[in-house]
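All the exercises in this workshop are built on plain-text protein records. A record pairs a protein's sequence with a compact description of its fold. The structure tokens are whole numbers drawn from a learned vocabulary of backbone shapes. Once this layout is familiar, the rest of the handout is easier to follow. An example says more than a description, so a record of this kind follows.
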Amino acid sequence: MNVIVSNSSDVPLYVQIKEQIKGAILKGELEDGELLPSIRNFANDVQVSVLTIRRVYEELEKEGFAVSQAGRGTFVSMGNLELLRDSKRRIIEQDLQKAVHNAKLFDIAKDDLYAMLDILYQED
């Protein structure tokens, strides 16, 4: 798992790391039941405090993206599929909000926006 953090970002380190892990889960790069790196190893790899990684794992567990097992580690959890689906939808909704905003800004009609979306969707 390749996680990149920026010390110059306004976003806290734990949030940067957590969002990248969630993104990997949503994209299928991390699979259900997959063991996440140990807190110590992950902290060394990313060059952050073990407390930061502990917080990341705790947040992921609260949000339903991970489950910790004492003595075994922290594992990817896709037990709450509806939560995963909702997270994916929110990502798309955010991008669509930007597109709608720009379309209104550039005076592009809704029908034209639909046509663009239809073409782009068919291209892949």
User: Anything to note?
Assistant: The domain at 13-76 is CATH 1.10.10.10 (Arc Repressor Mutant, subunit A). The chain has two domains: 13-76, 81-123.
